[in-house]
């Protein structure tokens, strides 16, 4: 599914996150990059340096918005002012889809600024799907939800995480940003088979994939985004591409950020999987992608 209604029928390749340490390099060197992902909240301002840089990036690159504060799993309606500012940015970037996390993090207007895991209950499915539909209807572009890494579980859960994800996206009729690093991190913390998770997700709804590095500690694994992608995560990525086809892929590297060249080179390792998937679907397109 190189293009589907959940990613605006685009065929984006391999992108990286737009980060401040790389601004100068990108603006001066103008490297060839398939696309950049931006954190929406960093640019929901009225002016200044962030928007000045963003406008220069938009002159040459495709940009996709990724949010960190929608909290689809929270019980209250989204903040109307937040949505208005987000929609203004959507019109500015012309992002073909917008992603945010399947989590909760706000109560009565107070924000935790963290991506807290959901209780996997039928009531949470209903509330979360309704909230996603409201956001999608307001923004008038496809909204896709990302699975988060987690370090705690709820005794009240009535289904697995992947069953919860599937129920939410079906009821909301939205796409999925499948973070295969998050799947691996959670699988090690909660003792489940990550391949079972990947195989259970509806491939036709996968709009985008995240890859990243993580850190191992004695009793748990932490989603740190400060390493190259580790082999078990590449294996999950390969299986996802095998099922979904060549899909827009984004490397997250948010701490101990190395040079632009190093980050981009790590991201481009995904190309071999995408070419293999493309070759299986259409050999002539795979040759053109080399």
TrEMBL record:
InterPro entries cross-referenced by the UniProt entry: MbnB/TglH/ChrH, Xyl_isomerase-like_sf
Record-annotated membrane-spanning stretches: none
One Pfam family here: MbnB_TglH_ChrH
Signal peptide: none
Protein name: DUF692 domain-containing protein
Originating species: Alloacidobacterium dinghuense
